[in-house]
Design brief:
This is PAC2 family protein. The structure is a single chain. This protein has 291 residues and is an alpha/beta fold. 41% of the residues lie in helices and 16% in strands. The chain has 2 domains: 164 residues, no CATH class; 112 residues, no CATH class. It has 10 helices and 9 strands. Strands 1, 2, 3, 4, 5, 6, 7, 8 and 9 form a 9-stranded mixed sheet that branches. A hairpin with a 2-residue loop joins strand 4 and strand 5. The two termini are 37 Å apart.
Length: 291
């Protein structure tokens, strides 16, 4: 699955896998926040062309302190994975699961961002199969997530008779998404993260100025401290024409169908990043921050 490139088709598969999982989760469908590549089209609805897509579904769970987890019960998570016929990657139960949609596969990643066990899988009370991977950075996406009504595709309704026509799910807000994506971009340095970050900053309503305001207004858990350096360092990569990230963003914009010239798209990326950084710096220096 990792070798398959992102396309609009893979994005639709990922959304279908998410909806199927959410229906099986039932009342627990709002116990997590959807982060990752399923967000950009919601956050930038006025983009000239839809986001390229994604090949996986990233779900972020809020666990809190270790001693707060004793009252939680994730038995439902095991049940949803089993009923959805998700198989653990590598044959070992854990935080990465593969779902089959026809002859295609979609990966489901279960994530958290907590104080203890950095970089390690976290066991979940009541769950025998599922764990969550503790990553540094996505926690801001838990701040004021947006509840969205997602249509249930006919293929899923056929598989799950009696399914409602829509399902309610929590998605990352604009500020939370940018903060989480910036952290991912810095930690793993993948071209898809550069593209996702640039896409949302360039095309969200209000563009770079609104993106900067949204990030400045996003709360960050105490264990993460200020994310100002993370945000600035990540977006700096998108305004430095000497770095390869701008060309990678241009390549993916064109794969998504944008027929603008390389030079025009490169200019658009750089100008947007510069405007974001100028606005964000001004906001943070004047005290408009929740970080």
């Amino acid at each position: 699955m990792d070798s398959e490139g992102r396309t609009h088709v893979t994005g639709e598969r990922a959304r279908e896998a998410l909806v199927r999982f959410a229906l099986l989760a039932g009342e627990h469908a709002t116990d997590f926040v959807v982060i990752g590549g399923l967000n950009p089209d919601f956050l930038a609805p006025g983009a000239p062309l839809p986001h390229l897509g994604t090949t996986d579904v990233d779900l972020l769970f809020e666990l809190g302190f270790v001693y707060d987890r004793e009252d939680l019960d994730f038995h439902w998570l095991d049940r949803a994975l089993r009923d959805g016929r998700f198989e653990p990657i590598g044959g070992v139960a854990g935080w990465q699961w593969m779902g089959v949609l026809g002859d295609a596969h979609v990966r489901l990643d279960l994530l958290c961002d907590v104080y203890d066990s950095p970089g390690q899988p976290i066991s979940l009370p009541g769950a025998e199969m599922a764990t969550v991977q503790n990553l540094a950075g996505p926690a801001p996406a838990l701040h004021q997530p947006i509840t969205r009504e997602i249509d249930v595709p006919a293929t899923v309704r056929g598989e799950l008779p009696g399914a409602a026509p829509t399902v309610s799910l929590k998605f990352a807000s604009l500020g939370g998404y940018i903060a989480a994506k910036a952290a991912a971009f810095l930690s793993r340095g993948q071209g898809k993260d550069a593209y996702d970050l640039a896409f949302v900053i360039m095309y969200c309503p209000g563009e770079a100025q609104a993106a900067a305001e949204a990030v400045a207004d996003t709360e960050v858990p105490p264990h993460r401290g200020s994310i100002e350096v993370v945000i600035t360092s990540a977006v700096e990569r998108l305004r430095d024409v000497e770095l390869p990230w701008i060309d990678e963003v241009v390549r993916q914009l064109q794969l998504a169908g944008d027929d603008s010239s390389d030079d025009q798209l490169r200019t658009d990326v750089v100008v947007s990043a510069r405007r974001f950084l100028d606005s964000y710096s001004a906001l943070m220096s004047t005290g408009r921050r929740r970080q």
